[in-house]
Amino acid sequence: MVHRLESLVVRHALRLPAPVGPAGAGDVAARQFDAVLMSVGFKLSADALRTLSGLSESTVVDTAVPTLATVREMAGDHVRHNVYFKDFPANVPDTFEFWTRCVREALEDGKARSGVIAQLRNGVLNLLTLPSYGTYQHTYDEMLAAHDELTAALGDRLTVLHLGGPLEDEVTALYLALAGSTTPLGDEHLADLKVLAGHCADGPQPETIPVRENRAVVNEARLKAGSSLLLDTVTDVLRLACALSGGDVSLQEPTRFRALSRPVRRTLLAGLDSVVAAAPAKIADVLTHREPFKRLGERLHPHEYPQWPRAAEVFAVARGEKKAYTFDARVEALLGADDVTGAVALLRSAPGRLFRALDRLLRTARTQEQRDAVVAAVEEVAPEVSGRVVLSVREYLHNRAAESGRKRVFVNRLGRAHVADDTRAAVPEAERERLITVLDAEMARRLPSPERLLVGPDVLDVALPLSGRATSGGLGVLPRGSLSPVDGELLRFFVYWKQASRVTDYDLSALLLDADYETVSWLSYTNLREVEGEHSGDITNAPDGASEFINLRLGAVRGTYIVPQVNIYSGEKFEEAEESFFGFMLREGEQQGRPFEARTVRMKSELRGPGRVALPLAFRRARDGSWHAKWLHLYLKGHPEYNRVEGNRVSVAALLRAVVEREQLTVGYLTALMANGGTEVAAWDAESVPDGPVTYIGLERPEGLHPDSVVITPENLRDLIPE
Question: What is the pTM of this model?
Answer without folding.
Answer: 0.92
